[in-house]
Amino acid sequence: MSKRRLSSLVLAALFPFGALIHPLAANADTLDDIKSRGTMTVAIDPTFAPYEYTDANNNIVGFDPAVMDAVARHLGVKIEYQRMSFSGIIPGLLAHSFDVEGSALNVTSERAKRLAYVVPTSKTVNGALVRSDFRKIPQPATIESLAGLTAAVKSASAPEQILKQFNETLKAKGLAPIQLISVDSVDQTVAALMTRRADFVFDDMTVLAGVIKQNPGKLKSTGELGPSQWIAWATRPDDTRLNKAISDQILAMKKSGELARLQKANLGVTFDTPTSDFIPAQ
User: Fold this and answer.
1) Whether 192 contacts 198, CB under 8 Å
2) Is residue 106 a contact partner of residue 124, using CB atoms and an 8 Å limit?
3) What is the domain range of residue 85?
4) 45, exposed or middle or buried, with CB in 10 Å at 0-12, 13-18, 19+?
5) Per the CB 3.0–4.6 Å rule, which of 27, 82, 100, 192 could disulfide with 197?
6) In this predicted model, what pLDDT tens digit does every residue of 192-223 receive, in sequence order?
7) 131 and 220 housed in the same domain
8) pTM for this prediction
């Protein structure tokens, strides 16, 4: 038998096996990888109490970790947290540096172009935090009352984008823009406020309430300002099975009342979160 004939027979014999392997390899995705490893790598910025922060023993705790724990139990895996600054989370997710992001992420139409949100777990309403002796911003605050002032805000966050939108409004009215000091953490925004480098901090009202509690008599809220937004985690757009697995567990927790219980315990309030059609229009 010729070598060419022998090679053809060998290839013919191997082909059905190869045909079976290829679809399996093609269908493997992040959810399969997570279950195979037994761990889910989650990126988080634990500087955003009460959503995610560290306790006295440096354990990551808060509302988001509590919900993520339930998701991991449902999948039968353990969580391996990867700590990083908030500004690095979306780039890291898209670069496949971890499996999923687990920090509170405001749902915006712009982000939805690059990410796939799971169903929301909470809702955010923003506001301005000032020193107790600061009188330039009334209660309730208005966009116009922020003109010419300096704001401290987390870099790459939804509140930062809202302030930029406020500046468009101020520009159209011929008013001075808000000067932005963009930093990596809530603690850094508060430090800028307390050292008078900033006139106000702009962030989620629930987060600001915690900051006021930690600094009795020194700080005050000026009320809600700007649009409310849903809060959700995100996966890569091609991780549809992982996205659905996480969403299904959150929906099950919503139905059982567990999600509302965790909201009340960690955030002090409850929200009736949507099950679909929650991405805002452009």
Assistant:
1) yes
2) yes
3) 30-123+231-267
4) buried
5) 192
6) 999 999 999 999 999 999 999 999 999 999 99
7) yes
8) 0.80
